[in-house]
Amino acid sequence: MNDFYFYIFEFGAIFAILAILFEERKNRDLLETLILAVLYGIILEVLNVHMSGLYSYGKEFMVQIYNVPLAIGLGWAVIYYISHKSAQNYDLKWWQIPLFMSLIALSIDLVVDVVAIRLGFWSWQIPFNEEWFGVPYDNLFGWLAVIWTFSFFINLSRQNFLSKKLSKAIKYSSVIISPFLLAFQIISYTVLSAVVSGKFTLNEVMALYNKHDYSYAYYPEVQSAKAYILFGMVFLLVLYLIKELYKNRNRISAEVDLLPYLILIFLHFFFLAIIFMEEIYKQLPVLVFISVFVFVAHTLLYLFPAYLLKNRNMNKEE
Predict the structure, then answer these.
(1) Which sign does the torsion angle of CA 294, 295, 296, 297 carry?
(2) What pTM did the predictor assign?
(3) CB proximity list for 21: less than 8 A, separation 6 or greater
(4) pLDDT digit of tens for each residue in the chain (318 aa)?
(5) What is the dihedral of CA 141, 143, 148, 150, to 10 degrees?
(6) For residues 174, 113, 51 and 206, what is the CA-based torsion angle, rounded to 10 degrees?
(7) Exposure string for 130-164, b = 16+ CB within 10 A, e = fewer
(8) I need a labelling partner for 256 at 20 to 30 A (CA). Which of 24, 62, 226, 234 fits?
(9) Cα–Cα distance for residue pair 186/99, rounded to 1 Å
């Protein structure tokens, strides 16, 4: 049965990216960005798998590049597209948009990663009962950093205060620069967590790191510190963006793109169905609640601009 899930996941990623490319066929800038996102996804995954050794992908994936499934690279482009479309109506500043997009990406992973490791899509070096139901907090932080790093450079490249040559240089070099900046951010996050936990000094952590010994990140005290730092940061980001969205409420547009929402529906229902079919809900009933909550949140984010526009029009008529 697990092989069936692998096939659905792979063909789903391929079908989603083809549908996106067809839908956006007249938008050259976005098409280029999606191609770059696929390359970015593959490069960062290959580097992470082979350099960190902290996780690996299942052999059941049909198409792999240096032990990284092609579907994962396509998946990162799909996640970028969904989060980009979620953010486009909210009239945020160019440097705020990556923060908004990163929260969309993280919310998707709260369920996807937990289910995926139980199907053998990929595996981490910690038990299922540690950190985020078997998913290291480093990875959740990584989802934030993957999106905000890449989208920051993409959004920067679109600004009018840059020359055309510099814009192109920033856009195309983002594929190479972003994975290394991502690695720096994740390392900084785990090192900071280890020091803040009180379990290690900075010198002790760096000595272990220089020996390629990453065990310092998985002591219980450090795991707790990682959780506090991650969710504290997410909480502050959410509060900040709510404040900005409230300020912009009269400038929010109401274009509702159907395709990214349909892809989101597929993602949510695919993994929610697996939760029940594989009886994961018996061990983790809270995962059902998280899945439904995130789906409702995504739906509201897509429909909220249209609701605001309707209210504005009604007020004008009165």
Answers:
(1) positive
(2) 0.93
(3) 31, 34
(4) 578 899 999 999 999 999 999 999 999 999 999 999 999 999 999 988 887 777 889 888 999 998 899 999 999 999 999 999 988 888 899 999 999 999 999 999 999 999 999 999 999 989 999 999 999 999 999 999 999 999 999 999 999 888 999 999 999 999 999 999 999 999 999 999 999 999 999 999 999 999 988 899 999 999 999 999 999 999 999 999 999 988 877 777 666 788 999 999 999 999 999 999 999 999 999 999 999 999 999 998 887 776 666 666 665 555
(5) 130
(6) 100
(7) ebbbbbbbbbbbbbbbbbbbbbbbbbbbeeeeeee
(8) 234
(9) 16
Contacts of 104 by beta carbon, 8 Å cutoff, 6+ apart? 82, 83, 86, 87, 147, 298, 301
Alpha-carbon Rg of the chain, whole angstroms? 20
Distance CA 98, CA 154 (A): 9
Half-sphere exposure of 108 (CA within 13 A, CB side): 27
Contact 54, 214 (CB under 8 A): yes
- Cα dist from 310 to 253, 254, 280, 307, whole Å: 11, 9, 41, 5
Query: Do residues 78 and 263 lie in contact, with contact meaning Cβ atoms separated by under 8 Å?
Result: yes
Look at residues 6, 197, 234, 220 and name the one whose alpha carbon lies nearest to residue 109: 234
Torsion-angle region of residue 80: left (phi > 0), alpha (psi -120 to 50) or beta? alpha
Token pair 């960005």 in the structure block, residue: 33
Q: Which residue type sits at 66? A: Y
CA-nearest of 184, 176, 147 to 40 is: 176
